[in-house]
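Question: Send over one sample?
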Amino acid sequence: MIRKLFILFIIFLTLPLSVKPSTDEWKLYPSYKNATYCEIAEDKIYILASGALYSYNIDDNEVRTYDKINTLSDVDITHIAYSGLIDGLLVVYSNANIDILYDDETIYNISDFKNKSLPNKKINSVNIQNDKALISTEFGIVVLNLEKLEFTDTYNTELNTYSSCFFKEKIYAATDKGLYCCDTKNNPLDKANWSQINTTSTEVVCEFNNKLYCLVKDSGIYTYDPNTNSSTLIVNNNGEKYHTLYNNGNEIIAPAGKKTTSSQLIATTTIFIQPRKGTPISTVRDMTVLSNMK
């Protein structure tokens, strides 16, 4: 089933979409060309492309677009993440505004972070684990409780944090100065309690199937073993320039894109399948689609 869903996602990377205006006064013409994220809900796939959001319903094949006129609170979306716990999609905007788009298409806006007086509120990524959304920023990590709909912790590490995750009672942060971690029982609010694991700029860190994965753009994708403090390269970058790495609950997704000399866009999604017994962890599935860039 997951294979079919992601094949559909790759197909939709190249589909032109039209937006029907909800009023006679305003029209939006968002671009849906460059897909960067997809999130699977119970009966639909949400896709973020060129700062705009749309969904594909796997039951009736309906394509639905979402914008400030018909649903959302803002424009220019940078990140999305789905939570099955609350049956809702976290929608993050470039100005740090946040929406939760529930499955019944009601919206709950969280503007607290947007309205805070901070020198830089840029959100680099969002990672949902259980009832928490870890929001990585240029100054550290902000934790949003998805059930209470409130921010509970702010870890001001003064590190430009690209990505973060919980793993075995520790919180890990991928930063421009390397990979850091802190024991959750050792007061992560105090930046002095954070330890530097390495000095290699790391773009993404995420947990999957009881393992920790790291993305280093100029190198590739690694697994990290905290017990031995060692990293193992499992996928070489090979010029693909994977721009993110995330756990969708079933698989690890690593989207990438590059242009060829023939002026075509190659959109590649490498999917790490949850290993079955006897299957090596490095087993991957590549799906590639070509679309003319005119």
About this structure: The radius of gyration is 19 Å. Helices lie at 2-12, 112-115.
